[in-house]
Amino acid sequence: MPAISFQSVCKTYQTPNGPFHALDHVSLDIAQGEFFGLLGPNGAGKTTLISILAGLTRATSGRVLVQGSDVQIDYAAARRKLGIVPQELVFDPFFNVREALRFQSGYFGVQHNDDWIDELLDSLGLADKAGANMRQLSGGMKRRVLVAQALVHKPPIIVLDEPTAGVDVELRQTLWHFIARLNKEGHTVLLTTHYLEEAEALCGRIAMLKSGRVVALDATSELLKAASGNVLVFKTDSVLPPALAAQARVTGRVVQMVAHDTQEIEQHLAALRQAGVEAQDVEIRRADLEDVFLGVMAAATGGRGA
Ligand SMILES: Nc1ncnc2c1ncn2[C@@H]1O[C@H](COP(=O)(O)OP(=O)(O)O)[C@@H](O)[C@H]1O
Ligand SMILES: [Mg+2]
């Protein structure tokens, strides 16, 4: 039985401009024990999918099963198996950290949970903040509390929606160390992130979402095979001629051009020289998951009739 089964999930929002298809027949199964990544640009539908999984939003059609329990028909059973770290920082300003965790334990009917709460506080670097009021915590500290809150009832499935967006390096490391340990101990992890190097390092399998549709779904190692080439990277103050710009990814002064072999690298360099583009800090790096992601996004036709 899969840990999570999304079965042809559709979500249509009614908007002043007419119906908006946020999710378009999303189907995927996540096996027990997987570390699964859900990637996609802003607005792809990741948070909507997780809200449906969490029972916070209703799917327009299709269904979602959590270890066999339907999130709509059998909400309590499904919810108890999930630990969800939401994208938005939501918290009760009147609680201190320990109170917030005790309250959450109570919500799941878990009593005498202080040993586990202490372990969570320790593992997430929150031990000295147990008595601090939620209001006084920095954004990064609040994020840690949200992770602890999601885990108070030791859920078999952990869902993290962009847990490291705007978070410092130290928290990222603490968090990934802890989540990786839980995954080794058998917990299933579903992660959405903008940081593709995180997904590449952590996730065994990845789905890419574009405009509400799954446009890639494979083992991370398989997806990376599509990135077998190299990337020519340089900086320039010149404007690239259109023929070159069409093949390049430009971020400010930084230009990246995919090259499958040395011959292609030489061709790129020759074309740049011919166009009078002055390239500085030239580097050649191996293609990575971000290159695969951008390739998939450029090639895929998303949903929403686009
Ligand atoms: N309540 C809502 N009403 C209308 N549109 C919404 C609502 N919630 C989300 N959307 C739209 O659905 C799309 C998917 O949003 P979201 O699931 O938050 O994407 P992601 O998490 O991948 O960035 C976006 O275009 C967003 O504007
Ligand atoms: Mg989101």
TrEMBL record:
InterPro entries, sorted: AAA+_ATPase, ABC_transporter-like_ATP-bd, ABC_transporter-like_CS, ABC_transporter_ATP-binding, P-loop_NTPase
Protein name as annotated: ABC-2 type transport system ATP-binding protein
Superkingdom of the source species: Bacteria
Annotated organism of origin: Simplicispira metamorpha
Record-linked Gene3D superfamilies: P-loop containing nucleotide triphosphate hydrolases
Domain (ABC transporter): residue spans on this chain: 4-236
Xref: Pfam families: ABC_tran
A GO term for molecular function: ATP hydrolysis activity
